[in-house]
Amino acid sequence: MTTDNPFATPHAPLTAPVAATTSVGREPLQFVAAMMVAAAVVFFGSNAMQWLFDLGGFRERLLQYLPTMLANWLGGLILYSAAVLLLVHDQRERHGIARFRPLAGLLVGFGVTYLVATMIVSTAVSYLSVSFYQWAFEQGSRTLWMVLYGQVNSLLNLILGCLLPLWLVLHLARSRSAPMAPGLAVALPSWHVALAVALCFTAVIYKLFAALSYGALYLYSGADGWQSVFMLSSCVLPFAIVMTAVRTRLPAQVSRFAAGRVLACALVLLALWLVAIVLVSTLVAFAAYSSLNASSLPLYLLPPAILLLALLWPLARWCTGWFFAEQLVQSSPR
């Protein structure tokens, strides 16, 4: 007969400690990479086919329109990347998914469905646009109709060719994905949020500038299409400012991505910046008109441009503090 020693040191059970938080991986960025690969296959594949068969004298016009084609494609990638990031993070948080499984199969499936859906949508839109072009060129405001057509076409391709296949793939894999453990907090690097805000802001800015400048790009007969490349490159600095401002305003890690707040933050920031652009442009117009000296116009444009870029920093930080106040409160010391 044996008895337990009442003075013996108690031993804790040998079980693995449970982590209080889980780190969200880079799966949303991998879906963005899969989209870029599929988009590159569509873009370069379609242009290669036109080059081989020389459809409509494509070889002769290639050098003239190549800069515009590349700029529009890269500008579209910004919009698509922002949309993919928002949708993947939204599905992950909405359904409590810790890891998408099987990841490789999902990436391949998304890429294939993207290719198929994009070709179907592009073919259907091209078929239906023939009658629209004939009607639009007979109108006095054909530039406005062409701009509206381009924006609607871009939106249809985004929704039906990219977001719908992505949602379908994620929906079918929901039952196989690893769920989030109850009571387990999420640690998401804040640069994911900053990247998404900057992408949304830059995508809308580029689309807006592209629509407004549609009728002015070929105003002169010597235009060679490099204006589109310059317009795209002018979005690099605002993107960097917004991403840096949001990243430095947020803590190193956040507990939620909050796709709706990310989109709202970018749109409110855009609205505030556009108001500032209109006010500054009005002042510059009055100053230039009063001087009546065209040679001094660049002197009036440079300081306002620097001022508008500088305004992005406080505006982005204010919007971040407004829409992500909960994250800032959670990270503040008590």
Automatic annotation (TrEMBL):
The chain crosses the membrane at residues 31-53, 65-88, 100-128, 148-172, 184-209, 229-250, 262-289, 301-325. Coiled coil: none annotated. Keywords: Membrane, Transmembrane, Transmembrane helix. Signal peptide: none annotated. The keyword Disulfide bond does not apply. This is Uncharacterized protein. It comes from Pseudomonas nicosulfuronedens.
